[in-house]
Amino acid sequence: MKRIYLAGFDVFREDALTYGANLKLMCHRYGFEGLYPLDNACPVDLQARAAAQWIYESNLALIRQADILMANLNDFRGHEPDSGTCFEIGFAKALNLPTWAYCSTQAALIEQVPHTRTMRGQCVDAQDYAIEDFGLPRNLMLSCSTNIVYGDVADCLAQIAAGERL
């Protein structure tokens, strides 16, 4: 049974352990074993920095055990996905793992981020930073490296399973 690392900001939910168990159950229904970042409990006696390091190393170890990475690329604390999730996608790509993601919107970044046009016609956000205008729903580094499914977890798992049967 192939293992899927379940990357995403879901670990910050109040019900993160229950939610993770449900994600793993969904994976099983599609013929996969889910590896959830909270599968390993951080030792309670660690100081904050040591706990952070332990979590980092534990998550990288889980990704190394995975055959596939699936990520939640929905907005988190703004108009972008969780930065930790983006790191995990990059790490998985460096390991040559197939990366999949789900996102609830297909709208291009330019449609998602409030912006104005400069005199030269460039779209900029409230801080005057250019907004990518490639018609992609996420930064090109994510959109071009990851199979993004527009929908939810089940939609993504169904597409992964379909691809595995080919």
Detailed description of the structure:
By secondary structure, the protein is an alpha/beta fold. The protein has a 5-stranded parallel β-sheet, sandwiched between helices. Strands 5-6 form a two-stranded antiparallel sheet. It has one domain (2-107, 137-165): Rossmann fold, CATH 3.40.50.450. The protein is built from 6 helices and 7 strands. It has helices at residues 16-29, 48-65, 83-94, 109-112, 140-143, 153-165, and strands at residues 2-7, 32-35, 68-72, 99-103, 116-117, 123-124, 147-150.
Structural topology:
Elements lengths: L1 E6 L8 H14 L2 E4 L12 H18 L2 E5 L10 H12 L4 E5 L5 H4 L3 E2 L5 E2 L15 H4 L3 E4 L2 H13 L1
Topology as a string of helices (H) and strands (E)? EHEHEHEHEEHEH
Please give the domain count. 1
Biggest sheet, spatial arrangement of strands = 2-1-3-4-7
For this structure, the CATH topology is: Rossmann fold
Query: Can you count the helices?
Result: 6
Q: Keywords, please?
A:
17% strand; alpha/beta; 5-stranded parallel β-sheet; globular; 166 residues; Rossmann fold
What is the compact description of this entry?
The chain is an alpha/beta fold. The chain has helices at residues 16-29, 48-65, 83-94, 109-112, 140-143, 153-165; strands spanning 2-7, 32-35, 68-72, 99-103, 116-117, 123-124, 147-150.
